[in-house]
Design goal:
mainly alpha
Amino acid sequence: MPVKVILAFAAVYLIWGSTYLAAQFGLATIPPYLMGSMRFAIAGLILLAWSFFSKKPMPGKRAIIVNSVGGILMLVGGSGSVLWSQQYLGSGLAAILVASLPIWFVLLDRKQWPYYFGDKRVIMGVILGFIGILFLFGAGVRNGLQAEKGWMQVIGIGVILLGCIAWTIGSLYVKYKAVQVDVATSAGIQLFSAGLFSLFPSFLTGEWNGFEWSQVSTGGWLSLLYLTIPGSVIAFMSYIYLLSVRPAAQAGTYAYVNPVIAVLLGVIFAHETVSGWQVLGLITILLSVLMINWSNYKK
């Protein structure tokens, strides 16, 4: 496997796994869609500026439309749903729910069905990953649902699952429209479009009512900085690159590893507890990633 691909996988595995905890700290003083708007817009401007000063080819109208639609689906529909739900769910449980992504990729990516269903290891890996998700999901629900806000947590779980479908559709849309644009430019358009669009749900949900910039803590600003540079600029660009060189379900395997990172960081920094079922789920998920990517490892 090329070094560039390995580094891209490392970015989406490790950095995105840590963004759940960073978002949890940021949400203490910044509303979710406002946080997403700032995070995506700033990251998008950075990448577009990089493309401009690097004299990359200017994108055409079709490339702008395709990347804008894909970015809104993935980032507002997908990442935005996770941020909103983390008001009611812990970082570990949110990451566990997002781990269902590779399942949606296999089910919705019809063009890759011959590849997916032609390799028994991929099928077994997806099934094994789903079993691991059930271990974690069951343990997370038992430990996470609290009587005083149980209904909102149930709604949050549903919102994240819908967000996973939106992320999958957006990823496949960008992948198969195949516009010839530099990776940094493509990611920049997607991020900036999502940042602007995030203002709509921010206003619709009343996030600006009573909000004051002075109430944002130092931890909130540091969280936003981490989510913007490593989380959006580096990791998201790596993900867009992986979509162009690997099957979507393989690019989506980061959702198997992210819960491992998120749960471990939650234990270390947020004093969350880990049950035996959660440990079993984490091990099962790592084995599933190995099976899904086995053919690439052999090469």
